[in-house]
Amino acid sequence: MKKLIFSALVATALFVSSCGKDDDNGGGSTSLNGDWYLYTFYDNLNGKGLRWITPDNCSLQTYWSISDKKIKNEWYHLEGSDCEYTPIYYNYTINNGVINVTVAEDSPNERIGAKSSVKYEMKGKELIIYHKSGGYDAIQIFHKKGVDYSSLDPFVGYWKMTKYVVGQQELIVKDGECLDGHIVAHSLGATLYLNYPENGQCNKTINTYEWIKEGGKYYNVSNPAEKTLWDISFSNNNRYMTFAIDNGRTVMHFTKVK
């Protein structure tokens, strides 16, 4: 377990460091120095299948403080019901798009001198990290503190379902009841989590898609041989979204959380 944690943390920290020295990326500051926060990630968390996930409250406290030669991973993670703080510090170098890290002598956790290296990509001022997690190809997305990400597509983000309309029947999402749903969307993919009652049972579904936007319209391209139109509309300064399915018979209403 400790080795897996180390590998994952090194991967995230490394990618954070890489972009600042290689990319300007469309204006604005993308320099290495600063604090980087986990925005979303794609992983097989808890063995429920590869999907896009929004960080839990502990992960939201985590950040990577980057200076010229050191990465301080101020890591918060959930252990049972407790949020534990386990910082790890690294020295690093960059060579031909590869970031090499070594656990620093002043690191309070992990084995001092342990080494690792990773690759990275940067798009739209985001750090996109590709790494192995439990044998799967996982992705982590980081945003830098103080950088404006308003240029991202309005669909990108974490959406919470508020209402589910089927024909003339309108169902309001209420705490403690089965009906619930949310969407975690990034430019690389999106996952719809939907719980709904049927025949006295609560069905819990998770579906992940690849999508593109063409001519102002959204398409599901998970199957390369079949491009399917998504009926998506935004309002209230892109903070409210409707997602219609079944030729408009069913409409899900969402509010943007972040």
Supply the key terms.
single chain, 258 residues, mainly beta, Lipocalin, 2 domains, ten-stranded antiparallel beta sheet, 22 strands, 10% helix, disordered N terminus
Explain briefly what this protein structure is:
This protein has 258 residues and is mainly β. The protein has two helices and 22 strands.
Structural features, described:
The chain is mainly β and 258 residues long. It folds into two domains: 2-144, Beta Barrel (Lipocalin); 157-256, Lipocalin (Beta Barrel). Helix content is 10%, strand content 55%. The chain is built from two helices and 22 strands. The chain has helices at 2-22, 57-61; strands at residues 34-43, 51-53, 63-66, 70-74, 76-79, 82-85, 88-95, 98-103, 115-118, 120-123, 126-133, 136-144, 157-166, 169-172, 180-186, 189-198, 201-209, 211-214, 217-223, 226-235, 240-245, 250-256. Strands 1, 2, 3, 4, 7, 8, 9, 10, 11 and 12 form a ten-stranded antiparallel sheet that branches. Strands 13, 14, 15, 16, 17, 18, 19, 20, 21 and 22 form a ten-stranded antiparallel sheet that branches. The longest helix has 21 residues, at 2-22.
Give me the secondary-structure category: mainly beta
The proportion of residues forming helix, as a percent range, comes to 10-25%
- State the CATH class of the largest domain: Mainly Beta
Number of helices: 2
Number of domains: 2
H/E topology pattern:
HEEHEEEEEEEEEEEEEEEEEEEE
Largest sheet: 10 strands, antiparallel
Over all CA atoms, what is the radius of gyration? 20 Å
- The coarse silhouette is globular
User: Got a strand count?
Assistant: 22
The CATH architecture of the largest domain comes to Beta Barrel
Strand content: over 45%
Average pLDDT taken over every residue: 86
Show unreliable segments: 1-29
Distance between the termini: 31 Å
CATH topology of the largest domain, by name, is: Lipocalin
